[in-house]
């Protein structure tokens, strides 16, 4: 049994819950499924009791389950509905109280499930999120490899950059390199935004032509063995104007102060405030509209967050992004993003690319 599964069981079953159900209907919850069982397919249900670990799936995945998981395979066969089959298993196990990640299930599926099972349902989303937020050494190593792949792909992309290229051309090349270098996939659709478009925090790559001297924000990542990296850098082809350099320096300094402040016991709000205060003092506070960072792992955005909403202390093993930004509508934007591991007395920065403004 993997340690993640044991910790979740220890937490959940001490509260009187009889069984855990992880419902994954056409990729609705591949993350928790993979985390607890190792199975990476798109259609399954995990039914976990103190003594049994069951996985229910259809014929597309019977062979795959055997190679990826040590869970007990129960074969789902139509025309019986999937939820009816789950209800029958829960009934046979005499489950009276069922633990369910409500934030990973649609309202339609939840209402149908409630109508079919004869048991109380308790939300265990917070428990699973909390367990997942503390990364093991093995998980940190997978994220580190995802970082290394993403960084090498970025270096290769910079080798081909020239004025007149479209953002979408660069994105295609960057994502090709991410996959060529051994990633399962990109972590998300890459953001490559130049000139005035760089003021869009989520400016997906467009047909815009990149021109000399304008800042180009690149936000990209790789996925390796399920775990993601998430990095942002800014480059210019030729010298940018002095305001671009000034804003980049302010963002750089804000990030550096936040990195120096991170350690176990500090809250997400406190770390966010460190960077935000610096940007405020520089006169650009209204142009930093998002949180400082987010948890990173099997999902690109998970717990814990570095934002004013999070008063929970950070813990050893949390992996978070640190990504302050300033966005000047109609002009340009700047964001720099690192991936870091929270330690008892500070943090370990996994990203290694130069954080300064890159001038080609």
TrEMBL record:
Pfam families: Creatinase_N, Peptidase_M24
UniProt xrefs under CDD domains: APP-like
Gene3D superfamilies: Creatinase/methionine aminopeptidase superfamily (3.90.230.10), Creatinase/prolidase N-terminal domain (3.40.350.10)
Domain Peptidase M24 as annotated: residue spans: 141-344
UniProt keyword terms in alphabetical order: Hydrolase, Metal-binding
Family classification: Belongs to the peptidase M24B family.
PANTHER family for this protein: AMINOPEPTIDASE, AMINOPEPTIDASE YPDF
SUPFAM superfamilies: Creatinase/aminopeptidase (SSF55920), Creatinase/prolidase N-terminal domain (SSF53092)
Molecular function as annotated in GO: hydrolase activity; metal ion binding
InterPro entries assigned to the protein according to its UniProt record, in alphabetical order: Creatin/AminoP/Spt16_N, Creatinase/aminopeptidase-like, Creatinase_N, Pept_M24, Peptidase_M24B, Peptidase_M24B_aminopep-P_CS
Domain Creatinase N-terminal: 6-133
Entry-linked PROSITE patterns: PROLINE_PEPTIDASE (PS00491)
Protein name: Xaa-Pro dipeptidase
